[in-house]
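Narrative of accomplishments. A recurring question from our advisory board has been how the design workflow behaves on a single, concrete structure rather than in aggregate. To address it, we present the structure tokens for one chain from the evaluation set, followed by the sequence designed for it. No filtering or post-editing was applied between the two.
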């Protein structure tokens, strides 16, 4: 597998509250690790929440006593959520902070993804497919059939997240398992990309003849060209 990742402040924000991490080599008992986190809760708190969560996830995974990989990740998420929650309640400057977390690892040709919040994971080859489901108010209303994605209410309430690291003292990640094929590209991204670039345009870039690094750059560039209203983060993994 080949990995490329980027994070950009965008065109309208003064600080990047996104954080990313990607390694194609083993970390602890995991064969690799891919993470996108989009912090919230004010400039200082949001930036801290995403960076701190990723650093602590890496520590927990590296030091885990468990052998089962799903248990390793779930335990790390549980512990880190508690750390972020306690900081948000104990320190005034971190009050109300939290972060999305989209995390994955790939074992042979099987993808395991863990989802909290509205950052996303896609698989692209002949077509692009969103794997994760957003933990957001508007998407939950859409899935219930009481809201359409082109409605004003959807646009106005898109920022309301229903699940986040640090939002409560306990959180559960949705887990996805997907079979991958040679040539697939796995994309993890913050909503700074998906709010600015539609799926078809993402697919056009990912299916181009550009290198993986160039594809990552092109996604960031297009999001900024379309307005860059938020921080933009992408992690790309090419399956060989």
């Amino acid at each position: 597998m080949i990995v490329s990742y980027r994070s950009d402040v965008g065109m309208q924000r003064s600080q990047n509250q996104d954080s990313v991490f990607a390694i194609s080599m083993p970390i602890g008992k995991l064969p690799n690790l891919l993470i996108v986190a989009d912090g919230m809760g004010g400039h200082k708190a949001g930036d801290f929440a995403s960076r701190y969560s990723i650093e602590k996830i890496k520590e927990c995974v590296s030091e885990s006593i468990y052998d089962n990989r799903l248990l390793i990740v779930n335990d790390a998420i549980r512990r880190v959520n508690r750390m972020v929650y306690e900081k948000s309640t104990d320190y005034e400057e971190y009050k109300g902070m939290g972060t999305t977390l989209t995390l994955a690892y790939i074992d042979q040709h099987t993808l395991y993804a863990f989802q909290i919040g509205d950052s996303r994971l896609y698989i692209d080859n002949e077509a692009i497919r969103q794997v994760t489901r957003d933990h957001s108010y508007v998407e939950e209303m859409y899935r219930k059939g009481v809201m359409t994605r082109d409605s004003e209410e959807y646009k106005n309430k898109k920022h309301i997240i229903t699940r986040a690291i640090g939002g409560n003292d306990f959180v559960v990640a949705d887990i996805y398992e997907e079979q991958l094929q040679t040539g697939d590209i796995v994309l993890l991204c913050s909503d700074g990309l998906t709010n600015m670039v539609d799926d078809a345009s993402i697919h056009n870039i990912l299916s181009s003849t550009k290198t993986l690094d160039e594809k990552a750059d092109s996604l960031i560039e297009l999001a900024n060209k379309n307005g860059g209203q938020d921080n933009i983060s992408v992690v790309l993994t090419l399956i060989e």
